[in-house]
Structures are given as structure tokens and as C-alpha cells.
Amino acid sequence: MPMLSQQDLAEEARLQALHALGLLDTPREDRFDRFTRLATAAFDVPIALVSLVDRERQWFKSQAGLDYCETPRSLAFCSHAIALNDMLVVPDTLLDERFAAHPHVTGAPRIRFYAGQPLHSVDGQPLGTLCIIDRRPRTFGDADRRMLRDLAQLVQDELNRDVLVANRTRELQDKNATLELTMRLRETAEQALRQKQELLDAVLETVDVGVVACDADGHLMLFNRAARAFHGLDADSALPQAAWPAHYDLYGEDGLTPLAADDVPLVRALRGERVKDAGMTIHVAGEAPRRLLASGRALHGTTGEPLGAVVAMKDVTELDASRARLAESGEWLRTIADNVPALIAYVDTDMRYRFANERYREWFGVKTSDMIGRTVLDAMGEGFYAPRREALERCLAGHASHLEIEEQRRGRTRVISSTYLPHIRDGIVQGIYVLSTDATSAREYERQLHALAHSDHLTGLPNRRSYEERFAQAIARARRGAAPLALAYLDIDHFKQINDSLGHAVGDAVLREFARRLGATVRATDTVARLAGDEFVIVLEQVGSPLECERIAAKLLDAIRAPFALDGHLLSVTSSIGIAWSARPEQAAMAHAADDGLYRSKHAGRDTASVLVAGA
């Protein structure tokens, strides 16, 4: 058995994909006929076909304007489109040596024009075409090509409907399976969270560390078992803060001086102070004084709203045991921090991480355990550290900082907004609090709004608003550098006639090509803008003299005079130009002079330029 060539193998794969559809020799279906009817109407042609190219024949799944449903493949125009695997357009068959002697050209149906867009299987094999046929030669512009491609895409979707439905069904089944798994995982997570909460409650009631918490309004909400044992009382939510020291027998470290209400560790934490190992004494009547070290902080929700404050108190006589129990309480704070949608970290004065929440792993792929004790540079790398170094050093000097940095990590680009707050105790910086949020969506939205507000949607040039800003900036630069400036106003001659005779689509194409030629003719530092309609403007910086303006105008006129080849039309386009030049530019004077120059060019017969010295 002879080996098949690559071309033969490709053809066999194509035929296999065609036969897999199961459409050959099936009855006519309106879902395909509607497209051939639509094609004949849309393109004003007598014949439109949905053809499928088999091994030895071309078979029509739908035909409008023909009485037969297949032809030999050797006579099929569509076979050429299949081989090309791209749209085939033959404007005049008698002028094309491939088809001039074709029996369907010299005889019925007397094809003089043909356009066919290949139809593909879901895996990209060309199966046939949607084609249109006319008995007269014709042009076929870009808009016609787009329409034929769009119609062919709809036909292609119908050809592959069963395959697409099957694929979609599999996708939905996979998604359903994923959803079920996600639900099971969520149930597991919720159960684990409930167990964790139960465990936390149990821990709070069993540890020998006193835990006291209040809400955001300063009402006592929690005394755990150890706290109740320390004070001999439970939390009284109705008790005002001023009454806490006397009611709960709070004294200073000396055990003699009553503690002021503002010095109560929980009050300090509620004010936002991070309290660490604050010494105090609880002296309950009839019991031995108990010296405690209290540490606490304010609590915030996931969106930053204040929740209150919590203080953990340990008996210094059992310091070693207290440390282990306090670490368990720290899990509560860790859980809160890890569930905040932001990066939270604490860096000491040696630039070493002492705390980092779980978001660092999610955003940067760095485990928290690999960060603690290491410097920012070692843990995160030079690319992360370098743009933040100044903010960190400023913070260590006692000044808060804020900056935004665009980071690309783990295949994603983020705009990270970071705040650096110095941790100051007794006037000395102890470290740095770092809070970073993802500002990507907000910044992208701002960029999109700016682009829409400052550019012309048709040509892509700066619009009137952007031009006015740039012109003002150019005048300011010219004044600072004592440099001359030129301003050119340009109109397309008889543009309304182009629109009226050839249509707005051609008019738009003329505007785009006109804008392109202007940009290609002047310097990259010059500003080309579209004001409205066919009105354009160019800001020309550092143009030495009116004579140089005339040379620039000549280049512009020559660039525009070259014929415009657009959508099958060869157009002669000219422009009228007015240029204002000034050694000491003023915005209003230059605009008036450029407009006056444009007026003179039009009255001089158009296709010319007039250069005026502004203010002269």
C-alpha cells in the first residue's frame, strides 16, 4: 500500500470531518435555506449556495437560484476556496485565467462573479463554503467581505450545531461536577469553621490567660473564665469606661496607685494603640494582689470597619505557660488577618518580617513561614523591594507613606496600593505596619475613561479636548524656551461631495487615511488632532520661520494629493491649509491667524496653503 503524502493525509482528515457531520444527501432544511435567502437579498445576487465539498463532488445543502443540488468537484469554484482555506473572490471570471473557459462561465448558469467563504468544522477542517454568484462582474469591498464572513460564521455554527451542543453539554456536566465538588468542599470548610469556633470558645474557657473584649462603642462583651477568676466578676456591658478601674480593682504596676481609666489596656487598644505587655495589678479585696501583663489591639472587620478591641492578660508568675496559651489566642487574630482582602504585614527596624498574612501566598506565591525572620529583600526579591525601599526607610524615620505599584506575579498584573505606618512607642519607631490592597480594577477603569475622553473614536487621533490641553502645554514650553511655534488648520476639500456621492463609509475611510498621512508626514513630536468632521489641526513645535512653515505645508499637500485607494474607489483628495507662525505665541492670536489662513486658501481655489505670522 503506497504511503500517503501530507496533502493526501490532510484531505482524508478533511473528508473524515465532513462525513462525521452526517449532512451529505440530507433533505433541505430551513435553518440553512434562510441564510442563502438572506445572502441573495443582502448582496443582490441571483445565486447563493451552502456547498459541501466531498471527495468527487460538490453537494449543496442549500441553494437559492439553482435547480440542481450537486456538481462534479472538478467544476466546483468552491474547491478553489477550500484549497485556499480563505475567502475566494473572483470579480470577473472572464478576466481570470483559472475560470475564463469554465463551462459554468461560458454556459449556464453563466457565472461572471464569485465570492466564497470557507466553512470549517469545530477542529478547523474546511468543509465547504457559503458562496454567492452573479451573472455580471462586480466589485467586492471590505464591508462586503465582512458581511460574507459574518453570514458564513452563522452557517458554520449551524453545520456544527450538534457537535457544539454535545461539547456544551459536556462542559455543563463538568461544571456541574465542579460545582458539586465546590459545594462539598464548602460544607467541609463550614463544618471545619464551626469546629474551629467551638474549639476557640472551648479554648477561651479553658486557658489560664484572661481575655477581655469590648465592642466598638466600648461596652464590655467578653470575660473568659480566667478573666472572671482574675477579677472575681463577669463583664458588665452597661458599665461606662470611667468606672472600670474601681469596679474591677485595677491598679498600676506598684499595686498601690489606682489605674486611670485612660490607662486601662482595653481602653488604649480601643483607641487604636497596639498594647504589648502593659503591666497592671488586680487587687481584689480579701485576695492576694495579682500582677498581670496585658496585650491587645483594636479589631476590624474584613472591610476595615471597627469591631472593638481585645486584651489578653497573663499572670507573670506563670509566664512560660502563659506564652503558650497566648499563642493559641493569637490564632484568633491570625484568622481575622488572613481573611481580610488585603496584604497585612509587620516589618521590624531591621527590615525583617515579623508578621505576614496568608494573602502573600495567594498574590505572590510566597509562604508566610518562608517570610518570617527574613528581610524584605531576601523574602520577596529585588524586584519587589527596590520600588518600596524609599517608603520603608521613610517609615522607619517616623513618617507614614503611601504608594501604588504595578506588579506582575503568577501570570497576573496587579496595581497594589500600599500604606506604610510607623509603629511608634514612647517616641521611638518599633517597626512598620504594612497594609496593601488591590487597586487594579479602579485604575483600569480610570485609564479607560481617560482614553475615551481624550481620543477621536474614528481616527484614533487626539480629540478637541486633548488638542486644547496639548496646545496650551506647547505654548507654555515655547515661552519657557523662547522658541517659535506654528499651528496648522486643515480641511478636506469638497468632503461633503465625497460623503454624498460615495456614502459615509467611504467618507470615514477618507478621514482615517487623511489622518494617517498627516501623522506620517510630520514629526513624532508634533501633535495631529481631529477637531470635528473634516477639520484637523497640527501643533508644530520649534519651527524656525514662516519659510519653514511653507516647506511643511508643501510636504503635507504632496502627501495628501496621492490618490486614495479605498473600498474599490480611487479618489483624488486635496486639502486647504492655514498655518499660523509666531516667535512669541499666544493661543487666541495663533488660532485666529490659522483660521484666517485656512479661509484664504479656500478662496484661492483650495488645494493650497497660506502661512500667516500671528499678531503681525
TrEMBL record:
Could you identify this protein by its name? Diguanylate cyclase
Ranges of residues in domain GGDEF: 483-614
Q: InterPro entries from the entry?
A: Biofilm_reg_signaling, GAF, GAF-like_dom_sf, GGDEF_dom, Nucleotide_cyclase, PAS, PAS-like_dom_sf, PAS_4
Q: Name one GO molecular function term.
A: catalytic activity
Q: Which Pfam families match?
A: GAF, GGDEF, PAS_4
Identify the residues that the record assigns to the PAS domain, covering every copy: 196-273, 329-399
Specify the superkingdom: Bacteria
Q: Which Gene3D superfamilies match?
A: 3.30.450.40, 3.30.70.270, PAS domain (3.30.450.20)
